[in-house]
Structures are given as C-alpha cells and as structure tokens.
Design brief:
707 residues, single chain, microtubule, alpha/beta, 8-stranded mixed β-sheet, Kinesin, 12 helices
C-alpha cells in the first residue's frame, strides 16, 4: 500500500501497528507510522539533559534518539519500497490500458471500414432497388425488409460506436487519473528523498559529533602526554634556574665582599690622603715661614731646599694616592654596576622561577583534572559495558623473602597507555602481560586503596547494590586489604573505612532531609556451612563436627595465619527523604575469600586438608560461574557451592562489582600469581549488565541484598 495525504497534511501509513514516536518498540513488535509533524519534530528535536556533566544520561539520551532516527529512516525506506511497488504497478496498469485503448482504436477503425463498405454496398443496393422499384413490386417488400435490417444494423453500429466512445473516454479519464496519481507518488517520493537526505545528514552530523568527542578524548590524552613532558621539562628548567640562582647568590656574596673591601680601602686611602694633605699644608706653611726668614738668614738655604724636596716628594706621593683613589673609585663603580646587573639578573631569574612554579602548578592541576576526567569516563564506560571491574594489588616482600634484583618476577610498564594499569609477570623466561582497571604497587597505602573505591561506597548510599571481594592465594594480603591491622589507624582496611564514610555521609545528608537505616550481617562459609558470626546462640551455629564457629584461621606451610573460611560482610542501607518522599535501597557487600593453595605446597593434613579441599572446590565453582558468564551461557551454575549461591545477586544481577586480585612478589609463588592474574583477566571480561538504582519499595534478593 502507498501513503495518503489526509486533510491535516499528515503522511499516513496504511499498515497497522502504529506506535508512539518516542517509543523504540516499533523495531521489535511491529510497524510504526509517522506524520509530517512527527518527522519535523524529530528533525528539530533538541536532546535535553538534566546535567551537562552526566555523561551516562547524555549517552542514554543520544542512543535513544539515534534509535528513533533509525526507526524513522527504516519507516521511510519501507514506505519508499511500497511507493516504488505501487508506481511499478500503476505503470503496468497504464501500459495495459494503453494497449487496450490501442486495440480498441484498431478495432474501431476496422468497424468503421466495414461499416463504410456496408453503407457503400447498401447505397448501391438502394439505387438498384429504386430503379427496379417500379418494375418489381414484389421485390419492394424485400428491399423494404433489407432497409429495415440496414437501419437496425446502423443503429447497432451507432450504439457500438457510442459505447466504444464512452469506454474510450473512461479509459482516458483513468489514464489521466493514473498520471495524476503517478505525479503525486513522484512528488511524495521526492519529498521522502529530501527527508531521507536530511535524516542522513543529521545522522552524519551526530556521527561527526561522536567522532569529534572521540577525537577530543584522544587530544586530551595527547595533551596529557604533552603536559607530562612539559612538566618534566619545567622541572629540569626549574632545577637549572635554581642552580643558576645559587651560583648568582654565591657570586653576589663575593662581589659584596669585594665591594666592602674596596670601600674599606677607599676609606683608608682617604684618611691617608687627608694626613698627606695636612702634612703638605704644614710643610708649605713651614716653607713660607722659612722663605720669609730666608731673606734674613741665608744660613737656612740648605734646610729650605731639603724641605722643598721633601714637599715635592710628598706631592708625588699625594698624586699617587689620588691616582689610587681614582682607580679604587672606578673599581667601586664597576663593582656597583656588576652588583646592579647581578641583582637585576637575580630578580629576573626569581620572576622566571615564580612563573615556572605557576606554570608547573597549573600543569599539575590540569594533569590531575585530566586524570580525574579519564577515571570518570573510564568508570562510565565500564558501567555502560556492565563489566566486573578488577583492581590488582601486589603486597610488599616480607622479612626473609628473596629481595634481590635477579629474583624479581614482577614489573610495571611505564608506557602512557599502561601506566598505573599494567603488570608484567616473568615465568621461566617468558613475560606475561596483563592490564586491569588499576594496579597498586607494593608501597601503596591503605588510604590510596580506599580513595579508588570510595565512589563505589557512595553508590550504595545512592541506592545501588555494590559488591567488593578480594581473591588470591593464601598469604597474598587479602585480609589485610579488607580488614587492615588492628590498633594502627593508618593501616585500617576497606571495611572500617567504608563504615566511617557511610556514617559521615549519613550525618551530612541529614540537613537535606535524608534519613538512613542500616542493617549489618557478618557471615562465614566454613566447609560449605554458612555461619552467622553475630548470632548470640553459639550452640545453634555449632557445626556438626563440633568445631566452634569462632575458629576462623589455621596454620599451613604457606601461611601461619591462613583464613580457612570465606568472610562476608553485608551492610543493607534504606534511605528516605521526607521532603521528596523518595526512598532508596542499597547494599554494600565486602567479601574476604579464603586463599587458594596447592596441597603440595601447603602440606595440609587432617582438618586442614578438608578445609583446603572445601576452599578449592568453592573457588573452582566460582571459576565455573565466571566462565559461564563470559561465554553468555543460558545456564550459570550458581548453586554448585554455597559461595556462588551467596554471590549470585552480585555476579548475575544489576550490581556494581569490583574484584581485588591480591598477589605476592615472592619468586616461589610465581605459578600461583600467574593463575590468579589469568583468572582476574577473565573476570574483567565478564559483562553482568548495567547496574540500576533501587528506588522502589519492591523486595530485593534475600541473600546479599535487602529482603
């Protein structure tokens, strides 16, 4: 069927199943229809955002808009195919009509020829009858009958001619109508082509915007690289200027010392000159007195000559001192000028250093902001992908472990792409490279660890289900990561730090009308038995074999204090805002898994052997679940162990999940570390779905969620 123009100017599709324009169900549940107003509204629609920094919302709105554009384009394509089909059908009908008209025209001409021949023959007969009418009366009746027949035939021919003329007129009218409809279809086809072109242009523009966004991110990475290089250059320049400044200060001090020496020398010279001047004046006075008396006493001529020679020598000495004074003054002027230049140079270098410091601070701030943006975009991408995030932590070497450079098996790549996210492991001369969301080196503090996961803790307050669990071989630092070291505030683990953040945030949100209720549970899975560690009825939780539930650690050859059970800490959070009447329900699960170990290395026997077998079996079931999720299999074996059954809401639901893979750098544990890293890489590739905020009052899962 083809589209029709209604009175309101709408383009209406004649097939059923119309849907709303803003719905994307048309591509899944049936056809849709669009009006011209709908198409114009879709083309001129501007995507609205609650916040321009909410990239997740912007991405979802953009994807929804692109889906509706694709749906509209698909509708136009289907309509275009229908119009093309109808056009071809009309062309075929028009061809048949034209052929039929041509056949009718040929038949009409043949009839006209036959009629003309008949008329001509009848006229001949009529003439002969008129001639013979007088002679043959008997033939008159026959001629009259023939005439009547001729009249009837002529009337029949005229009726046939009129019918053919009417049919020809109808055919011409149908042909004209078909031409009009073809013209309308052509016009509509052109309009659809214009709409399709505009949609394609708009789609290209959106794709260009996406490409531009990707280019912006790439440019940001390049700018980040340039900033890092610039910071290194600035630091080098800063150090060189500091060295120049120190040299200038030393040179200035030497010049000041020389200046002080010259000033002291000038002062002493001025004193000597003054003394010489005084002696000269005294001698001149004596000479004058002696000259005055010389006229009276000629005996004093020798004394006068001696005094004159002495006065001349003193004048020479005075001239030399004056020359020395002038030279000293010139040296002092040069020293003052050099000191002034050094001071100017010192001020310029000081200003340059201040400018470099400001540039260095801006560059470092820009680098920090870029790193924050990178982390935010990475987290947003990971949340949209629905992957399990994986952090890797390498514990430091302990006392007695081999710490030589030759024995090191773990290294960290320094390339920009893998910086802070990559880890390389050497085994038997072969390098194994892994990349995770974050890699913590051995000197990373507990505070550094918590800063990276603090946003996940906030998500639990915002109404999300959050799960953080530590995985690794025994003795790799899982319990230290989760619990920390008692009695040392700086070494508190994730669990106490998460509780502190939640209580602080809970208190600060009171002013905004939020009230929170918290419920805590602490469970352990020991030999496939779930125990409530907060229960006061100890007899009720005592195991069948009589082992007390408080005995949670044991000694093996690999770890003197090895956790022999899986520890599960769950905090259920219910928040209600009185002003907005909004209710959120979040869950925070913090899990310390028991350490995996090889029986050949642990040397476990008796109860320790049974515990090791139960631990390895549950961790193997966890691996089966992870592999089933990675392959997107229909059946995921969550019920194969109590651990995987307890983790089902975190791995198979809409939870934000983070795994810590803890490894040891000790060379003898390289094989176990490689297995842990390979398992973590597979976990990182699992897509469990995008997490959703729990804002309704519906009951949640009763295992690791509210219920």
């Amino acid at each position: 069927m083809f589209g029709e123009m209604t009175n309101g100017g709408r383009i209406r599709q004649s097939f059923p199943g119309a849907r709303d324009l803003t719905s994307t169900e048309g591509s899944e549940y049936g056809p849709v229809e669009f009006t011209r107003e709908d198409v114009d509204a879709l083309l001129h629609e501007r995507i609205k955002y609650k916040s321009k920094y909410n990239y997740k919302e912007r991405c979802e709105n953009t994807m929804d808009y692109v889906k509706r554009l694709r749906l509209c384009i698909r509708w136009f394509q289907e309509l275009e195919l229908d119009y093309a089909f109808e056009q071809e059908k009309l062309k075929n009908a028009m061809g048949l009509n034209e052929k039929h008209c041509a056949d009718l025209e040929v038949s009409l001409k043949e009839k006209e020829v036959e009629l003309n021949l008949v008329i001509h023959e009848l006229r001949k007969n009529f003439s002969s009858v008129q001639v013979q009418l007088a002679k043959e009366q008997a033939e008159k009746l026959a001629a009259t009958g023939s005439l009547e027949k001729e009249k009837e035939a002529r009337l029949a021919v005229e009726k046939l001619q009129a019918a053919l003329t009417e049919e020809l007129g109808k055919t011409q009218g149908d042909l004209q109508t078909a031409n009009q409809r073809i013209q309308a279809v052509n016009d509509m086809y052109k309009l659809l082509q214009e709409y399709n072109s505009s949609l394609q242009l708009y789609n290209s523009k959106i794709q260009g915007d996406l490409d531009e966004a990707h280019e912006t991110i790439k440019r940001g990475e390049k700018e980040r690289t340039g900033i890092v290089e610039n910071i290194g250059n600035l630091k080098g320049q800063f150090k060189a200027l500091q060295d120049q400044l120190a040299a200038s200060k030393v040179s200035q001090e030497d010049i000041m010392k020389q200046k002080d020496e010259l000033v002291n020398e000038i002062v002493s010279l001025k004193v000597e000159i003054q003394q010489v001047k005084d002696d000269r004046d005294r001698h001149i006075t004596e000479v004058k007195n002696l000259q005055a008396e010389a006229t009276k006493q000629n005996d004093f001529k020798g004394t006068i000559n001696e005094l004159e020679s002495k006065c001349s020598s003193q004048n020479k000495e005075l001239q030399e001192l004056q020359d020395q004074l002038a030279a000293s003054e010139r040296k002092l002027q040069v020293a003052d000028l050099s000191t002034f230049e050094k001071m100017n140079e010192f001020e310029e270098q000081k200003e340059s250093i201040m400018e470099l410091k400001a540039r260095l601070e801006k560059a470092e701030l820009k680098l920090i902001e870029g790193e924050k943006l990178r982390k935010k975009l990475h987290n947003t991408i990971q949340e949209l992908k629905g992957n399990i995030r994986v952090f890797c932590r390498v514990r430091p070497l302990l006392t007695g472990e081999n710490s030589s450079e030759e024995a090191k098996t773990i290294s960290y790549p320094t390339s920009l792409e893998a910086l802070g996210r990559g880890i390389d492991l050497m085994q038997n001369g072969q390098k194994h490279c892994f990349t995770f969301d974050k890699v913590f080196v051995p000197n990373a503090s507990q505070e550094d660890i918590f800063v990276e996961i603090s946003q996940l803790v906030q998500s639990a307050l915002d109404g999300y289900k959050v799960c953080i669990f530590a995985y690794g071989q025994t003795g790799s630092g899982k319990t230290y990561t989760m619990m920390g070291r008692p009695g040392n505030p700086e070494e508190k683990g994730l669990i106490p730090r998460c509780l502190e953040q939640i209580f602080q945030t809970r208190q600060s949100l009171r002013s905004q009308g939020w009230k929170y209720e918290l419920q805590v549970s602490m469970l352990e899975i020991y030999n496939e038995t779930i125990r409530d560690l907060l229960s006061t009825n100890k007899e009720a939780v005592r195991a069948d074999n009589g082992v007390s539930p408080q005995k949670s650690v044991g000694k093996t050859a690999m770890n003197e204090q090895s956790s022999r059970s899986h520890f599960v800490f769950t905090l259920r959070i219910t928040g209600f805002n009185e002003s907005t009447e909004q209710q959120v329900q979040g869950v925070l699960n913090l899990i310390d898994l028991a350490g995996s170990e090889r029986l050949s290395k642990s040397g476990s026997t008796g109860d320790r052997l049974k515990e090791t077998q139960a631990i390895n079996k549950s961790l193997s079931s966890l691996g089966d679940v992870i592999f089933a999720l990675a392959k997107k299999e229909d059946h995921v074996p969550f019920r194969n162990s109590k651990l995987t059954y307890l983790l089902q809401p975190c791995l198979g639901g809409d939870s934000k999940t983070l795994m810590f893979v803890n490894i040891t750098p000790e060379p003898s544990s390289t094989g176990e570390s490689l297995c842990s890293l390979r398992f973590a890489a597979r976990v990182n590739a699992c897509e469990i779905g995008t997490a959703h905020r729990q804002v309704n009052n519906r009951p949640l899962d009763n295992r690791l969620s509210l219920g």
